[in-house]
Amino acid sequence: MGLAAGFVIMMLAAIGAGDGLKAGEHRGDPSHGDRQERQIEKGSNERNVEYIVPVEGVVPRSLVDTWGAVRSEGRSHEGIDIFAKRNTPVIASIDGRIVRQGVSERGGNVVWVVGDDGRRHYYAHLEAFSEHRTGQRVKRGETIGYVGNSGNAITTPPHLHYGVYTSQGAINPYPLLTGKEIEEIAAE
To answer: Which of 43, 63, 161, 166 could pair with 10 in a Cys bridge, judged by C-beta atoms 3.0 to 4.6 Å apart?
Structure first.
């Protein structure tokens, strides 16, 4: 599946900003249990990697930064929620390899992609998976699943939970998708 018409997302992350967090701030490693979980606009990051909004038809300016919001059991939100109609294609935000496709209690139907940027990209609450399978490479913009409300999102409207993880833990994906710096987000 080719990329839809749009703009290219790249953002220039502030050096020393901890991959989108304040200096020294990081979240837990999602590899432990269930904690982890197109329109393209210009920006860039220190790795010169292009990211796109991982829900077809959603533009960056419509995203809401839900990072850090309070969740059940004393957790904080380690990603952003992107609301869309059920079965809207969920697309890879970056080139990479699918390393896990399955079901988890909180995330429901989930796909993990290790991006060519070295980060782990988490797509959760999917209605269904695409034809891609674990081990396969995907290109930015290819469909990897469909928006739903599986897992602990069963009582919410359909949406994609999108998370990004480094070796230090979760980072806020909102600046990566919108091209906004952390300081701009805090001022809003």
So the answer is: 43
